Amino acid sequence: MLVVCSICVAVLLPFSSVPEARGFDGPDLLTQQIRTTAIKGETLEEVLGTLTSDYGIPIGMELGYQKITARRREIDLNITQTTLKDFLDAVIAKDPRYTWKLEGGVIHVRPLTGRDALLGALLDTKISHFAFTGGGTRYRLFSDILSVPEIHTQLIVADVAPLFILIGSIDRVGKGISFEESNLTLRELLDRIILKTNIKRWVLVRWGENGEFITLRS
Questions:
Q1: Residue 182 sits in a domain of what CATH number?
Q2: pTM score, two decimals?
Q3: How far apart (Å, rounded) are the C-alpha atoms in residues 119 and 182?
């Protein structure tokens, strides 16, 4: 049976409407300067999270299957001021399981090998319609996305349960926000959200001892 679980794991950023990001799908973004950075003992997700929190760079991350008991891979990196492109290359060199590409104004990070088939299928799934308005929580937004029929049906078949984060996700979506999209893939939907709002990152991951959970977070 498919169930929805909730745990306290991470802090999420506030959600509010901002002008849609423009001019990101080209060399200007990749030549943006990233200041001297010292990193020690952080995961790939944590390192790239600084690009969204410190620079507002839109990132979409499809993480590889993560087993609860697996040792987390940590990154140590000392890098002087450089471009975003060189920064991303340096980080990925420390965790070569992944690759990155600028697509549609968003930096997409995905597994280079061992990609989870279910996550790939979900991100490529066409969604007929999705809409939300301000006033709800981020928890509700992510829950609604994974509950659209085209996604929900695949999770049932795969016997995978959405597991959502509570800390930070109870933040309210600002009143007056209106968002409506039709006939686009899940990846395109998530990209539209991070380009049109203060949410600058999406992370999709399948995890558990047997891959029984899926989490969508930012």
A1: 3.55.50.60
A2: 0.84
A3: 21
